[in-house]
User: Fold these one by one.
Assistant:
Number 1:
Amino acid sequence: MAEAENVRAEPSAQTRVFGEPVLTLENIELGFGGVKAIDNVSFEVRKGEVLAIIGPNGAGKSSMLNCINGFYKPQSGSITFKGRKLPAMDPHFAAANGVARTFQNIALFRGMSTLDNLMTGRVLKMNRGFLWQALYWGPAQREEIEHRAYVEKVIDFLEIQAIRRTPVGRLPYGLQKRVELGRALAMEPDILLLDEPMAGMNVEEKQDMSRFVLEVNEEFGTTIVLIEHDMGVVMDISDRVVVLDYGRKIADGTPDEVRANQHVIDAYLGVAHD
Amino acid sequence: MSYPDPTVHDTLPKVLRHNARSHPDEVALRLKDYGIWHETTWAQYLAQVRSTALAFRELGIGRGDVVALIGDNDVDWIATELAAHSVGAMTLGIYRDALEEEVGYLVDYAGAKLVFAQDQEQVDKLISLGDMAASVQHIVYEETRGMRKQTDPRLHELAVLIKRGEQLHQADTAAFDALVDATSGEDVAILCTTSGTTAHPKLAMLPHGRFIRHAITYLGADPKDHTDEYVSVLPLPWIMEQVYCVGFGLVARMTVNFPESQETMFQDLREIGPTFLLLAPRLWEQIAADMRARVMDASSINQWIFDKGIKLGMKAIEEGRRSTLADVMLFSALRDRLGFSRVRSAATGGSAMGPETFKLFLAMGVPLKQLYGQTETLGAYTLQTGEELDVDTVGPPFQGCEVTILNPDSEGVGEIVTRHENMFTGYFRNEEGTKADLRDGWMHTGDAGFFDAKGRLVVIDRLKDIAETASGVRFSPQYIENKLKFSPYVGEVVILGSGRDCLTAIICVRFSIVSKWAEKNRIGFTSYTGLSAEPRVYELIRAEVERVNQSLPEKQRIQRFLLLYKELDADDGELTRTRKVRRGVVSERYEQIIDSLYNGAQSAHLDTEVTFEDGRKGRVKADMRIMEVGAAPTSELRKAG
């Protein structure tokens, strides 16, 4: 597979129409010591789409997400976001400009209630300073009520009313995943990065989660980039799929195109690499 | 207590209008949404009904049409119901968890012209029915979520209709009053589904005037007023929820509260602190069982207090008093915890309830009363007086309701037949059914019962369910089942033995409790099926069966039982939507198992079709052990309990 060839998506009749690219990644290279995690990968994320990044273990999927929201700084290449071309994303810039994410291993505040965890998603949107908040009454309280109202909408959307006051550490895994999605949604993101949202779930929980992902996309017009191992889920819910293998992009197209791609079949079924 | 004059305000919309005029700013309804209780005053309630009704009229809904409603209990549900009544239409409530075919049957049978469907889930059911719902010209939905892609031309958003109705009202402010004036007490208001333990449900026709007058009769036995708070948790299509939520709400101006979701029910109940409460026996039993399960997790001191308090309280109740000590150390805290602190009156009905559970709540200070009635009789017509401890009867009939026992045997047991002025007028489009059940104005209930010395009615079981073994021993399966169901470990049970040589039982363990018990006893399991097959769970249940056997006459004792690999489920048709066991379905589906219970086999093999939550079907094969219930329990077995 020396000459990995990119398969370009030609919008077919059934594909939905998407807007401009909101995020463009060009020639991203990322290495850790001698290991090349990402090797010259370029792709774009278009407004309003559900984009899946797939690939075997160690293909560089999570590293890719970490580059997008600024956790990792690529050694070369550029990221264009909101009209700014940057050598690497800055995490604060990303968060303040509507990039939210969830993690492969749930990263919630386990001792805090669902409600409080979701409220932390609003922190960036709170303008009142420490002193106002310490005073509690007045502007800070009004602000808190406003944010609580938004958080309640998210709670209603994800149907987690019954666990509003439950410390998340006591919740089953599937619900914790849902709370984590809720915290990301509380940020009112334009782009939502989901790192294996359905890992470790049973069939019913996966169905629920798929439904939520699609509804977030439809109701709020949120662009979604997700990493997922369950091929059934990926093929069902994504508009476009980017396939990575050993840090390189081997395919990029609609689920049908990707499914038929020989490189992808080889990568998944295993072919000797020379 | 004064209620609106039923000769003047003889339809539900008229009573609503009366309330809105006399008490416009009083809170009529409360709904929890986005974590906050939202209040609706009588004036706002009327305004929503008015707008919806005017929009319905524009859609061509009028006198004699049927409007079906399906969804969770909330303000929009009952406001839409009253809007339909205002234009002279009849309403038909459908259980929210009904499967597609059930919805299809009802909608098609009634010829529903408009269906109010709460959300996408319900709308999807209707749309996928296709030709089966050919009569449906309009589908009105409440929640817009997930509806973007729907293009069915029959769809209308409720909020949009209400806005349109508001415009229509501005254009002609007298239009709505004219509509309401045109409604008549003789008109059929509600088509109420019967529980249908044997076949498809029938639709009882309940006219406005009768519905209101019977509500007033009931209020004579258990008065309510505008200071009463009620939490609506039972399904609205059920007759008793209609009587309370719509009937008492309008007639007595009792405030009706709707919880946020099914799952938050108990939390919301506690926040409201209702003064009046109706729960089905299984919910009371669930509360009692959850309470016990939670105590298992408590510290040993708390467990000790709980055990002592329950013992003291139960003993006091048996002696016809309440224990102050138990109240101070346990029950006042329990009442607060459960949200029962302000309860002035509580009821249970729909099916029989285990006497132990009943006593437990009485001991707790919840004035629980059994009621009895049918859909056809507009719900309850007997209610316990609460004057003395009474776990066996359903109390005396209401004023003006006649109840007699038809063809009583030597012990006075026979079929319960009843009549009062305000019963149903017949089954919708079912003359034959009407003739069979309603003879010379008497409703034949099909229930067996008798009157005790104090004139209180005792209901034994369905007449056709009273069974006789091959040796001629008569027994009531339900009576024995209820005894077993008081055990926190037993979820559902079916007693068999009709025409056989002895009694046996199919038992479903109560998963929430037994799984906790298993955890505590370090028994590993992966699923309900696995847990049910566990030998130590068998021993646990055997101890429970033996305990019940001791309280039964020797010939009515259970000889063998097995633990079913799954819970009985309404989706599989094994239970009705109100969770009564459909014996016919059970004995047909589990014929193999039942045969094994009687042919001396050590285990039963099963190969059957199941319906999953999402409607898919699959096959299940299972082997279940059959356990003999021995004579005297050994001390070893006792420990298992």
Number 2:
Amino acid sequence: MKEQKLSLPGALFGALAGLGADIAIRELTGFEVVSGILEIIGAGFGLLRIDKRIYDSTVRLLKGMDVQPDDDYQHILRRIDELTFDLPELRESFLKLMQAGVRAKHA
Amino acid sequence: MLGLGTLFRAVKGLLARPLEDTGLLPTRYYVREILDALDHDNIGEAVRLLRKAKGALVDRARLDLARQQIIFRCRVLRERHAKHIRYLEGTIKAYKKNRKLPWRWLRKDPAERVGYYEKTLELEQQAQNLLEQYEMELKDMLTR
């Protein structure tokens, strides 16, 4: 079997050519190739569970609200409305969580 | 035994931390770090990371949700501080009112306690103002 030799100048030339190509593509087309590749790598490495992480954080935020044990459902809903009047996506997530909690309680 | 988690943390500490400020890392990385900071009520760090994240198209919605979560936590904490401020203001006011009563003239002055209350009040107000500033900044990020 033919022995393979690693060339340092060759590696450096390859790196420089890659950098040059990236800059040229970015300047000519506006596409950010390196960022795109990093995005894919990031998605691959354990960051796939980001939605679960967001869900956990949403639950923690809801639990972190200053709610009294005797506060009723409507009162908590009003508080959520007040605090999320301009945060539509988060409000929706909270409402879904609340509804799921109520359903689980009735089941 | 060293697990993958430890390895991941070591790589993150060595590579990701220095690269954080460049904004080159994937948006998901920033979202995860923002949520970690938020878990510890470290609003300043969460806002700093949000500023760095570019918000690639695939994760823009997630980044915006993280932004909304920070705003929400700011509001909850501000309310908590407001409650403390009301209590402290009431206590200081009651003390100043009681001090004027003739039968309290001879009583030893608990000035130290009032000083403590006033200092705490000042800190609570500073915290509230800081949270308000963060909230305003985060609201402005919506239009970028």
